[in-house]
Structures are given as C-alpha cells and as structure tokens.
C-alpha cells in the first residue's frame, strides 16, 4: 500500500478495516427502518447514484494499491468526510472537493448535499434501525487554535461530528489521545487507528466504521436478476435459491455472485471472478480518481475552520471493520428442506480473491465495498 492517499490521506485497510459516517460519539445502530423504506429524504434523488460511482472508482484504485492484502472501506463515509470538511473551505479547495466527489451542484445545491448526509445519519441513528453498525468521526485540532463557532455548529448539526483540542507538539501524546478516543467511541472495535503523524500536524480527521452481518432466517424467494449497488451489470444465466434468499449466479463478467440477505435491510454481494479474471472484472468499473489534493497542501483554504491562522489537513485516517456471521450451524436446521426443495447446485469455493459489496436495500447505498485478496481466516 502506498504511504499516502491523495497526499496525506491514509487509508488503513484489511479484512478488519474504512472514512466518516460521523457522529459526536461512536453510535451503535440497531433496529428496523422498513417503515421509512420508500422515503428518499430532501433532494436526494441523485445522491445514491453519485455515492455508487465513487465506490466503484475507489474500489479499483484501492485494489491496485493493495496487491494481495484485504481492503474494506465505506464509500458513504469517505464522501461524507470530504463534504464535511468542505464546510470549512473556500475558493478552489472548496470547488475541488465537490468536483472530485462528482456532485453536480447544478442538479443538487450544496446545502442539499449536506442535508442528504444529515438525513442518512439521522435514519441510521434511529433506535429501531436494524443494521448492526458502529460509526463516528472526530476532528483533532491543535489546542493552540480556536475553532470557528459556525464550523463547529454545522459539523455537529449536519454530521454529528466533534472537534477535539490536541497537543500536536508532542506527537506521541497526540497519537495516544487519538487512539484511545477512537477505541472508546468504537466500543473497542477500532484500535491503533493512527500509527504515525507528521511533525507539523495541526488538523487530523479520524473516522471509524464497523459492520456486523447477521443472517436473516426468513424463508423467501429472491428476484431473478442481480442488482449490485443499484446497477444491473451482472446478467444472470443460471440461478439457484436457498431458503434464506441467498443465491449463486453465473455472470457474464467471468464471476459467480453469492447474494446474502442479512437482518432486515442489509444485503451482501460476494463476487468471485474466475481464476486470473480479477483485473478484467475490475476493468468494467470506472477508472476515475477523486483528485482531491489541495486540502492537504500549503495552498489549502480551510480558513473557515479556525479563527486563527489557516490550516491544512495533515492526516485523514479511515478504518473499517467487517464481521460476517458464520451460518453453518444456522443453515443446518434447514438442510433437509434444501435437499427436497432446491435443485442440485454446484459447489463454489471462495478460496481465491473476491469482491464484497454490502448495501442498505432501503437507502440503496453501499455501506461497505472491498476486495478480499487472502480469503483465509484472519
């Protein structure tokens, strides 16, 4: 993995590894969002499509960096992180963020984008939201600087984020503070989120995200086509369905696809390319890059963040954790039913590199995207 991401943006990745879903504290999200299933929120018609495009771009980019390592990240959180930072920017820095994220300000006003993220976070933070995840973000700012009141208010109201005074003159102390804070807010899921800091650090953005997939046991049929992230780019030629709504599909993009429903609104796609076909599969994705670099340079205009001298982002760290429930024992109770009702299916082993995409079906947004280069248990 290269030492930096868009200059000093560091992506920490692994099978346990994501950028912000943002909140003042680490929030655990559980419950049922089905009652609000068809509501899209304020002016968010193009929101999901934009986030999806970014996810495919970042996936291809991250895979080229990682080689055979395991990469997992959250496209929603990465997009939210940069739009949150845009609240403190001006001029070219401000423009570059929205251009890089492919948000069309002619179709969706800037404040509408912020409101969409606010709507998303509020929905996810509802006590009855069923998907099991923990997410949060924090801005660590040099304790000699005074944060602008308007910036602090807006990131709190729109992104449930927080600013934390930090003594960056002592790098070891700052790293310890950041890591302890993140460990506490993530309920122990995220540790050692920061391994190093530049000696001139004045502003560091830290975000964490974890997802725990619990298999739904409802017996049901599934649709006859695979839609991944809202796009029907897998064309079904064969299909087998088990009692949980999972299915294996032979796709024209040299891949098998296992679709697994988790509790309530989350669904996962495990995409297994034929041997030596991973790069060809990834070639079907967009090769765009974000191109957001100015906020990490001396030309950064984050003058709306503090009341003091202008600052630049020295470090932005994103870490995600993905845990998938072992379903062997759960499936055992249905084994006899499957033998009677299911057609004979081939055995497909995920023993080589594959892709994983997890989305919220109601929101139609990709929460987790990744490539598992080493599928052995970690």
Number of strands: 15
What class do helices, strands and sheet pairing give? alpha+beta
The coarse overall form would be globular
Summarize model confidence as the mean pLDDT: 67
Reading side by side through the largest sheet, how are the strands ordered? 3-15-14-12-11-10-9
CATH class of the largest domain: Alpha Beta
Beta-strand content: 25-35%
GO cellular component, one term: extracellular space
Organism: Peromyscus maniculatus bairdii
Protein name: Serpin domain-containing protein
GO molecular function: serine-type endopeptidase inhibitor activity
Task: Provide key terms for this protein.
378 residues; alpha+beta; Antithrombin, Chain I, domain 2; Alpha-1-antitrypsin, domain 1; 2 domains; seven-stranded antiparallel sheet; six-stranded mixed sheet; 9 helices; 26% strand; globular; disordered N terminus; glycoprotein
């Amino acid at each position: 993995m290269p030492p930096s991401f868009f200059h000093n943006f560091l992506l920490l990745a692994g099978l346990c590894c994501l950028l912000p879903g943002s909140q003042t504290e680490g929030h655990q999200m559980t419950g049922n969002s089905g009652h609000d299933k068809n509501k899209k929120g304020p002016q968010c018609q193009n929101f999901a499509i934009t986030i999806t495009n970014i996810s495919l771009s970042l996936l291809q980019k991250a895979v080229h960096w990682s080689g055979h390592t395991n990469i997992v990240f959250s496209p929603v959180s990465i997009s939210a992180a940069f739009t949150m930072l845009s609240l403190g920017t001006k001029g070219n820095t401000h423009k570059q963020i929205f251009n890089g994220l492919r948000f069309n300000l002619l179709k969706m006003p800037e404040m509408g984008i912020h409101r969409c993220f606010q709507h998303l976070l509020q929905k996810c933070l509802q006590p009855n939201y069923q998907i099991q995840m923990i997410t949060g973000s924090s801005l660590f700012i040099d304790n000699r600087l005074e944060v602008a009141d308007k910036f602090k208010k807006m990131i709190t109201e729109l992104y449930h984020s927080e600013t934390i005074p930090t003594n960056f003159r002592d790098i070891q102390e700052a790293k310890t503070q950041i890591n302890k804070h993140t460990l506490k807010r993530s309920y122990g899921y995220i540790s050692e989120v920061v391994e190093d800091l530049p000696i001139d650090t004045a502003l560091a953005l830290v975000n964490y995200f974890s997802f725990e997939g619990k298999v739904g046991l409802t017996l049901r049929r599934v649709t006859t086509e695979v839609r991944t992230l809202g796009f029907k780019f897998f064309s079904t030629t064969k299909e087998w369905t088990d009692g949980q709504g999972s299915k294996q599909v032979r796709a024209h993009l040299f891949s098998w696809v296992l679709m697994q429903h988790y509790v309530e609104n989350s669904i996962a796609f495990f995409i297994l390319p034929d041997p030596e076909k991973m790069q060809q599969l990834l070639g079907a994705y967009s090769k765009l890059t974000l191109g957001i670099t100015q906020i990490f340079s001396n030309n950064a205009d984050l003058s709306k963040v503090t009341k003091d001298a202008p600052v630049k982002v020295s470090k932005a760290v994103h870490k995600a954790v993905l845990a998938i429930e072992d379903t062997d024992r759960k499936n055992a109770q249905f084994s006899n039913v499957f033998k009677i009702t299911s057609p004979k299916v081939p055995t497909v082993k995920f023993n080589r590199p594959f892709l994983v995409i997890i989305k919220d079906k109601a929101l139609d947004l990709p929460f987790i995207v990744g490539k598992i280069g080493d599928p052995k248990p970690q």
